[in-house]
């Protein structure tokens, strides 16, 4: 059973989410929060598998709430819910530690599959969409004028092959595409990805993409 917290300041939105989630045999809603402070309290109390997090909420917004949840080391994974005209906030949410984001007008089955994916440890953002988002806001990342970026300790432990794979993950490649590129089995790629996440401390594939940008393994264009 996947436990879910709904954090949204719109009562009708929370009601709609609850009706959808509780129609599923494998999901249960453990609480509703109308602002970020309530979300933090309920996450601490219930430790849900997934927090469905709105961005714009009173008292404490969803991005800062996400940042604080991740900072505590909670097992809860955050799924940001946004709209197309809030790409910048979705980007900030991912950098805060969210495991992905969905658009509020997503189809019900997309929301359900997204929650299940996040609960299982996967990212819910399509790699190509992740790259489009990061490309649009790569100007927010620090740059190193006049030469290569300073080596980052987060990737220092990676083997050459793992660094290559992290680079193409950042470019939006799927496991199947990586397997074909490097002429290995897809299960081998999954093993490499797991090791990359473990060595770098990235929570999931979305965070690995951000790491690839942060360390300048991938640049926009």
UniProtKB/TrEMBL annotation:
Using the record's annotations, give every residue carrying the modification 4-aspartylphosphate: 54
Where is the HTH luxR-type domain positioned along the sequence?
Answer: 151-216
- This protein's UniProt keywords: DNA-binding, Phosphoprotein, Transcription, Transcription regulation
Looking at the record, the residues that make up the Response regulatory domain are 3-119
Q: Which InterPro entries match?
A: CheY-like_superfamily (IPR011006), NreC/VraR/RcsB-like_REC (IPR058245), Sig_transdc_resp-reg_C-effctor (IPR016032), Sig_transdc_resp-reg_receiver (IPR001789), Tscrpt_reg_LuxR_C (IPR000792), WalR-like (IPR039420)
Check the record and name the Pfam families matching this protein. Answer: GerE (PF00196), Response_reg (PF00072)
Signal peptide as annotated in the record = none
Q: Which PROSITE patterns match?
A: HTH_LUXR_1, HTH_LUXR_2, RESPONSE_REGULATORY
This one is known as Response regulator transcription factor
Please tell me the species this chain comes from: Streptomyces poriferorum
């Amino acid at each position: 059973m996947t436990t879910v917290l709904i954090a949204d300041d719109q009562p009708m939105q929370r009601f709609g989410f609850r009706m959808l989630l509780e129609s599923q045999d494998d999901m249960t809603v453990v609480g509703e929060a109308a602002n970020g402070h309530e979300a933090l309290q309920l996450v601490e109390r219930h430790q849900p598998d997934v927090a469905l997090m709105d961005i714009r909420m009173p008292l404490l917004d969803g991005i800062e709430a996400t940042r604080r949840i991740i900072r505590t080391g909670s097992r809860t994974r955050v799924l940001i819910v946004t709209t197309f005209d809030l790409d910048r906030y979705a980007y900030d949410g991912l950098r805060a530690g969210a495991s992905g984001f969905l658009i509020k007008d997503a189809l019900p089955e997309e929301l359900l599959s997204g929650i299940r994916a996040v609960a299982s440890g996967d990212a819910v953002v399509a790699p190509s969409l992740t790259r489009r988002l990061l490309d649009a806001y790569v100007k927010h990342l620090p740059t190193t004028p006049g030469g290569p970026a300073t080596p980052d300790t987060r990737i220092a432990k990676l083997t050459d092959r793992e660094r290559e794979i992290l680079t193409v993950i950042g470019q939006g490649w799927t496991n199947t595409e990586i397997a074909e590129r490097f002429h290995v089995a897809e299960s081998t790629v999954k093993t490499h990805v797991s090791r990359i996440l473990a060595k770098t401390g990235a929570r999931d594939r979305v965070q690995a993409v951000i790491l690839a940008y942060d360390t300048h393994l991938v640049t926009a264009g």
